[in-house]
Amino acid sequence: MFGIWEQCIDLALEEYNAGSIGIAAVIIDANGNVVAAGRNQLKDSLVSCSAIRMTSIAHAEINALNNLPWDKQKVRGLTLYTTVEPCPMCIGAIAMSRIRRVVVGSVDPYAGSVHLLEIDDYLRQKGIAVEFTQGKVEEICFALHYLSLRHYHKPEHPVFRALQARYPTYARKLDDLLNSSFLPHKELDKAQLMQAVDGEHGELGSG
Questions:
Q1: Which end of the chain is more exposed for a tag (fewer CB within 10 A), N or C?
Q2: DSSP, residue by residue, the chain
Q3: What pLDDT, in 10s, does the model give residues 107-142?
Q4: pTM (two decimals)
Q5: How far, in Å, are 60, 65, 183 from residue 37 at the CA level?
């Protein structure tokens, strides 16, 4: 299923370079076919993935659900892949859809709300299964999220304390690279992203 993560990360990188938060989501059917995709478009107006771009609800998961064709909206067995743990709004939207499996690239200890699926009676009865990816995919998804937020928020924002506590090694590595000017302040290409993660060029190959 590695190709799905490749598409998610490419979309998240596209959004990072468009000036918003580097998060993306892809929905697949039971046969592994991509049926919808979306990326965060809080801060860009590109006619790409969203009819609700430049609004406060233009999160990746919301855009993916909004892009789900009508004939797929009632289909069972759909899985949503997202590069970052969904926020409360997106968890609610997923629960109101027919999606019953979510695969998460990286944890969001600040706004991530997967725990609501267990503590809320209504959400719990939906029976949504959540899986968290580890390894290389997790680090790449975190890198795009963290680097986006470094552009978006001041260093004293509490989101950084939460992320640095959850991913101390990853965060320290990215902070060092930013301080050394290794990473560009604007656009980031795939090779630079891979170098930031493991110092090597190449395709996603492990995790």
A1: N
A2: -HHHHHHHHHHHHHHHHHTS---EEEEE-TTS-EEEEEE--SS---SSS-SSTTSTT--HHHHHHHTS-GGGTT-SS-EEEEEE---HHHHHHHHHSS--EEEEEE--TTT--TTHHHH-HHHHTT--EEEE--THHHHHHHHHHHHHHHHHS-TTSHHHHHHHHHSHHHHHHHHHHHHTT-S-SS---HHHHHHHHHS--S-----
A3: 999 999 999 999 999 999 999 999 999 999 999 999
A4: 0.88
A5: 8, 8, 27
Q: Is 203 one of the catalytic residues?
A: no
Q: Which of 6, 14, 61, 138 is catalytic?
A: 61
